[in-house]
Amino acid sequence: MSRTVINTPNAPQAIGTYSQAVKVGSTVYLSGQIPLVPSSMEVISEDFAEQTQQVFANLSAVCEAAGGSLNDLAKVNIFMTDLSNFATVNEIMSQHFSQPYPARAAIQISALPKGVQIEIDGVMEL
Q1: Nearest Cα to 106, choosing from 91, 124, 121, 125?
Q2: For burial by CB atoms within 10 Å, which of 66, 67, 113, 124 has the most?
Q3: Higher model confidence: residue 15 or residue 112?
């Protein structure tokens, strides 16, 4: 199968040796998105809810560039620096997804790039 790189100016550009997403067959593997504003490449704010909303906006832009939407995500991995924000993630996620929800993991880690509080990656099936 061939691999197609997905790239959009509506999500932050890669800050390392990776692509925003890669499509293999009908499956799209999305790289982790952090709460960078695409136009400035700066973190949106220090507020966890605002960071989470920006991450979902970035993921949505990559999904759309690949020909899908957030609701096509089959699996997401959520990385947070503080799991006490889990309820906030659930509430915000419910604003962006409809049932059936994707499978998911939520993991607390010690640090994320640029000192952000949340990063989410995913796998989408088209």
Answers
A1: 121
A2: 124
A3: 112
Q: How many other β-carbons are positioned within 10 Å of the β-carbon of residue 120? A: 24
Q: Which residues of 8-42 are buried (b: 16+ CB within 10 A; e: fewer)?
A: beebbeeeeeebbbbbeeeebbbbbbbbbebeeee
Which pLDDT band holds residue 15 (cuts at 50, 70, 90)?
confident
Peptide bond into 100 cis (omega under 30): yes
- Hey, CA dihedral for 46, 50, 52, 58, is it positive or negative? negative
Q: Which residue, among 121, 116, 117, 94, has the nearest Cα to 105 in the 3D structure?
A: 121
The burial of 3, by beta-carbon neighbours within 10 Å (0-12 exposed, 13-18 middle, 19 or more buried), is given as exposed
In the structure encoding, which two tokens stand for residue 122, read together?
């995913």
pTM value > 0.85:
yes
Contacts of 32 (CB under 8 A, 6+ apart): 77, 79, 119, 120, 121
